[in-house]
Write a structure and sequence with these properties.
The chain is an alpha/beta fold. The chain is built from twelve helices and eight strands. It binds cobalamin (B12).
Length: 288
């Protein structure tokens, strides 16, 4: 069995204090540790657990999230170690139970542990959502469970937005939309968060935005960029017509277009205003 150990930096992250505080607590005997032959401190889960039980009420500013029990400590271990596969399983399980706070803990925890936002989206949220799709197709998930799960994840992404450090000074303006008939808006929400992080003023129009609304948005808010996410298209010719109209409006207003989502492949999208087809949130981050 693997023995779970933290170094001082990881222990500091979990307990929400500086490394120097960790050192002091070990010297005062408040926090137990193992000293390696090289003189480094190593902490077992049990050491941190004992500390939390004894001193958690002494207003420790817990950095990752409030540690209520052994399970929370276990999750914080996987966060600090970046065990995304374990975290995906945990998030799926908790989301299907509609345990918003538990899903939130993981997203907030990863962000506070300094994982880039795009990594949280590409390595945790996207695979979890894809898994819901597979489970649903495989008959392992009812439609209502899939709704519970995806809505819980959607809400936790919106809440995560609350702790993202957004630059006060704006570097640009972007409109984010889904085409008519589209309900899948989670990827778009994540793209919007990435843009906000990069200093964009985002106008989030979301599900069911038609070409007419885009034109009104351009006139009023004068964006430089338009982000379109398309996951599912019911009527391809109709959506193609709508896309053509949107691209015409972009041409008139000098707006650059960034596309994402699997259903985009169903459309003809050769156009000088289209700057990029984005396959990940990492790409969205580095092209923003
Ligand atoms: C959640 C979900 C729903 C929710 C949506 C809730 C919401 N508010 O979004 C609900 C329950 C409403 C729903 C409904 C339907 N859904 Co649905 N849904 C899903 C599910 C599980 C997750 C979708 C999602 O958010 N994916 C997460 C994103 C991050 O992944 P992605 O779309 O692959 O995007 C990647 C890239 O393309 C990129 N990206 C995407 N967009 C953008 C945008 C930008 C700007 C950037 C930078 C990047 C980017 O980022 C991702 C990274 O790789 C998928 C399963 C799946 N494989 O995705 C099915 C899935 C998309 N749904 C499907 C279907 C069939 C439907 C319905 C038709 C079901 C029905 N019969 O009613 C309806 C259609 C509703 C409609 N009118 O749109 C199918 C689509 C199959 C197809 N391609 O034809 C899927 C694939 C499930 C399946 N395996 O069959 N769904």
């Amino acid at each position: 069995m693997e023995i779970k150990q933290f170094n001082s930096i990881e222990a500091a992250k979990i307990l929400g204090v500086n490394v120097s505080t960790i050192k002091r607590w070990t010297e005062e005997g408040k926090l137990e540790c193992i000293k390696t032959a090289g003189g480094h401190r190593k902490f077992l889960m049990a050491h941190l657990g004992d500390y939390v039980k004894k001193y958690n009420h002494d207003a420790v500013k817990v950095h990752l999230f409030p540690l209520e029990d052994e399970n929370d400590l276990e999750i914080s271990y996987h966060i600090v170690k970046g065990d995304f596969n374990v975290l995906i399983d945990h998030v799926i399980r908790r989301a299907l139970e509609s345990k918003l706070d538990k899903v939130q803990q993981v997203l907030n925890g990863l962000y506070l542990a300094d994982y880039p936002l795009y990594e949280i989206y590409d390595r945790l949220v996207t695979p979890a959502l894809h898994r819901f799709g597979e489970m649903w197709v495989g008959g392992d998930l009812s439609i209502i469970e899939e709704h519970f799960g995806s809505q819980t994840i959607r809400d936790s992404i919106i809440r995560l937005q609350g702790i993202i450090k957004i630059p006060a000074e704006k570097t640009g303006r972007a409109i984010c939309l889904n085409l008519s008939g589209e309900l899948h808006d989670i990827a778009l929400r994540m793209a919007a968060n990435i843009l906000e992080l990069k200093g964009y003023q985002v106008y989030f129009s979301g599900q069911y935005t038609s070409a007419t609304k885009v034109e009104q948005g351009f006139e009023r808010f004068k964006p430089q960029r338009l982000y379109i996410s398309s996951t599912w298209i019911e009527n391809v010719p109709q959506t193609q017509e709508e896309m053509n109209r949107i691209l015409e409006v972009c041409e008139q207003h000098g707006v650059d277009v960034y596309l994402g989502g699997q259903a985009i492949q169903l459309l003809q999208i050769e156009h000088p205003r289209i700057k990029n087809y984005l396959r990940s949130f990492q790409e969205a981050y580095f092209t923003a």
